[in-house]
Specification:
heterodimer; A: FAD/NAD(P)-binding domain; Arc Repressor Mutant, subunit A; 17 helices; B: Ubiquitin-like (UB roll); two-stranded antiparallel sheet; 1 helix; 8 strands; 30% strand
């Protein structure tokens, strides 16, 4: 059976992927879009699970603005396959790319598609830093709880405590207020003094005045509702034997604790890099956001010709920027495919770049304001770092003392990063711990080497694949 | 002790519903729920235990990345609870210890 072939394969149907698909279709490219979720739309623009009357007051104009893009995407003529995993991507003969797909989230048919170009629009993953007790049932991400609200209409019990830092902490507490719900308290790792450190970045943030005003409005609403905000907390420990029973913390010179069955953790978002890593694309350590990000040019082209990366999967900057980045990448892909019209390209590119300025300025400001503290980035020895294989920070440090050279040797010794999540939740922390314990920079330490299958797929499904399984060469 | 749910439905978000079974217990859940959401709403706090120990684990990221919500669905182990929508008559079971091969 012959493999189907598309001009452009877009992986991820969020803001960047949808905007990229619409633009590429306008230029006449044939486009296939795959996404793991049961529905297209991505994380930010979700809201279908909410009661209709609550959508506007809770989600706000920013989320609802996605409705027009979702409609344009559905009508643009791109083929969209939700619920589909990409578990391997390889560069085939003559610059063509071959993606191995598994339908029905890996439980269904395995098949392959070919594409002339690939746009990775994988988006972000939430970053809850490892803290003591974070593997207990009842400890989750703030973004996880927000997803439950937006897609399922489920909201946390009022005893829930939000822990960490970043705009989402306030946004989610505010959205719950709008839905007639409350949380017990916010425990924030950044201190009031962080504002002084972030001040030099305020002028650029003013370009995103709307976002800044929204943030201030949200903070005022939380104050008015009397939601307790405890700032500058340290030494966060989630307590409980078989499930979460409370959270302990240090606030200034005093210790504190709150009884709760639900602790929601959050410290910003980081790009999802497993796929671009498996392709051997160059990545840089971002010293501002403390995460790895793929190296891309102004158009989103990665270090591997034929692979473009757009949206939060390239650099965390939010949905509005992601849409523009998706457009820019699609324009460049069309140009590379000989479908570009130079003047129109320049005009649209200028608009896209201007559109990104405000949101990017705002992100730079909040990155500094809610900068994760050192004790959270490099946790204490007793904290489990690798959730899948239960490897502690102490074990990682001990192996460095024994002469362990890097993340991949660490993986072989401890299975750290080798579990189901494939390092998605421990990876950046392991790089930071190795750097600290070995007296090197994180860039020198590097990252796990990623190999397909990028998501678990039953061998039975691979054996039964209709098309031959491409055996790729992967960079070491 | 009856299960205590950590999440509650917003009023008006629950129609229509489907009948599923979670660990042998019947549950009527909104048709748009994922399996992980149905378990959380039903107060089933843990999806099972880790292969290497007896510590209980529960859905964590709800975006298909952490694999803490793997469950057995209609006899097939290691299904992704947060990415799979419920369907009428679905049989969901938590998994304990090392998973069987599919």
């Amino acid at each position: 059976m012959s493999t189907e072939r598309w001009d452009l394969l877009i992986i991820g149907a969020g803001p960047a992927g949808m905007a990229g698909a619409v633009t590429a279709r306008e230029r006449g490219l044939s486009v296939l879009v795959v996404d793991e979720a049961p529905d297209a739309g991505g994380h930010f623009y979700r809201g279908a699970g909410m009661p209709a009357v609550l959508r506007e007051p809770v989600l706000g104009a920013d989320v609802l603005a996605g409705g027009a893009l979702i409609e344009a995407f559905a009508a643009c003529g791109a083929e969209c396959r939700p619920g589909t995993l990409v578990w391997q991507l390889t560069g085939g003969e003559g610059g063509e790319w071959c993606a191995m797909l598994a339908e029905d989230q890996g439980a269904g048919r395995v098949c392959s598609v070919q594409a002339g170009a690939v746009l990775l629009a994988l988006g972000a993953q939430e970053r809850p830093f490892p803290v003591s007790g974070w593997t207990l049932p009842g400890a989750m991400g703030v973004g996880a709880a927000q997803t439950l609200m937006k897609t399922q209409g489920l909201v946390p019990v009022p005893e829930a405590v939000l822990v960490g830092g970043g705009p989402l902490l306030y946004l989610f507490a505010y959205q719950l207020l709008q839905a007639g719900r409350r949380v017990q308290a916010l425990l924030e790792t950044s201190s009031a003094g962080a504002l002084w450190a972030a001040l030099p970045r305020l002028p650029r943030a003013l370009l995103g005045l709307g976002q800044l005003a929204k943030g201030l409005r949200i903070l005022a609403a939380l104050r008015k509702a009397g939601i307790p905000r405890i700032r500058g907390v340290g030494k966060i420990e989630i307590a409980g034997s078989t499930c979460v029973e409370g959270v302990r913390f240090q606030a200034g010179a005093r210790g504190g604790s709150l009884a709760t069955p639900l602790v929601l953790l959050h410290h910003g978002f980081i790009p999802a890099v497993n796929l671009s890593r498996s392709l051997g694309c160059l990545h840089d350590w971002d010293p501002d956001q403390f995460c790895w990000r793929p190296r891309v040019d102004l158009w989103g082209q990665s270090s591997r010709p034929g692979i473009w990366i757009a949206g939060d999967g390239a650099a965390i900057a939010g949905a509005r920027t992601a849409r523009w980045k998706g457009v820019l990448a699609a324009l460049d892909i069309a140009r590379a495919a000989g479908r570009g019209d130079a003047a129109a390209l320049r005009a649209k590119a200028l608009r896209a770049r201007l559109g990104c300025l405000g949101p990017q300025g705002m992100v730079a400001f909040t990155d500094r304001l809610y900068r994760p503290p050192d004790w959270l980035r490099r946790p204490g020895d007793d904290v489990v770092v690798c959730r899948c294989e239960s490897v502690t920070a102490g074990e990682v440090r001990r192996l460095v003392q024994l002469g362990c050279l890097g993340p991949n040797q660490m993986k072989a010794f401890t299975r750290c990063g080798m579990g189901d999540c494939q390092g998605r939740f421990c990876g950046p922390t392991v790089s930071e711990l190795l750097a600290q314990a070995g007296g090197r920079t994180v860039a020198e330490v590097g990252y796990f080497r990623l190999r397909p299958p990028l998501k678990p797929v039953p061998l039975e499904a691979i054996a039964a694949a209709e098309a031959p399984v491409e055996r790729g060469k992967f960079p070491s | 002790m009856p299960p205590v749910s950590l999440f509650e439905p917003l009023p008006g978000s629950g129609e229509p519903t489907v009948a599923i079974q979670i660990n042998g217990q019947p549950h009527q859940v909104p048709a748009h729920y994922t399996v992980a959401a149905a378990m959380l709403a039903a107060g089933v706090t843990a999806c099972g235990t880790r292969p290497e120990g007896d510590a209980q684990r529960a859905p964590f990221c709800l975006m298909g990345l952490c694999f803490e919500c793997l469950v057995e669905i209609d006899g097939i182990p290691n299904r992704h609870g947060c990415m799979t929508r419920v369907s009428p008559g679905m049989q969901v079971r938590s998994m304990h210890g090392k998973p069987e091969l599919a």
